[in-house]
Amino acid sequence: MERGLASGLLYSQHEQATDVGADTAEAAMICPPSIQFESSLLQIAPVDKVKCPYVRDVSDVLFQLYTRHNPTAAQGLLINDDERLYASNIDFNDNTVIIFHAFMETPDDGSVLWLREAFLPRGDTNIIIVNAQTLEAGPWYIRAAENTWYIGRIGALFIDYLVS
Q: How many domains does the chain divide into?
């Protein structure tokens, strides 16, 4: 099986990267090295999704936009997707707040919800929540802590995209 490089991550040639909110596309997965033998795919090691979630930059790290026009319904944004960005409610003249949620939090509760509800009534603000709940899931704190470098890297790429 041939492998290709997409967004700096390894994907199988037959797999496609998906975007936030896509209904029909399947998410691409990072897999251990493998070979195709007749109708079987043989991997060097199993993927344990509970202890070590596979990382997919288009679905494991999501960017959710909230504004005064959509205070409760997130709009998904993607790195290098200009069409999605310009179709969203983002206003580059407004302040932008980027929130990374904590270990075992989701973007819909806890401190993330509190911060979102605190910023939106203060005026025109773009709130972007970096949703990486599959990489920061419990009870695997050590694994979640180890994943923060990746979440930060994808967040930095997204910020670079927004300011370019």
A: 2
Same domain, 75 and 148: yes
pLDDT tens digits, 36-63: 455 333 444 433 444 555 556 566 789 9
Look at strands 95-100 and 125-131 and give their pairing.
parallel
Question: Around 140, how many Cα atoms within 13 Å sit in the side-chain half-sphere?
Answer: 16
d(CA 74, CA 129): 9
**How many helices and strands (H and E) does the chain possess?**
3, 8
The single-letter DSSP state of residue 120 is: G
Cβ(148)–Cβ(53) below 8 Å = no
Neighbours of 99 (CB within 10 A): 18
Is residue 41 within 8 A of residue 9, CB to CB? The reply is no
Structure confidence by residue, pLDDT tens digits, 72-100: 999 999 999 999 999 999 999 999 999 99
In single-letter form, the type of residue at position 100 comes to F
Domain that holds residue 92: 62-163
Collapse the DSSP code of 126 into the 3-class scheme (helix H, G, I; strand E, B; otherwise coil) and give the result.
Answer: strand
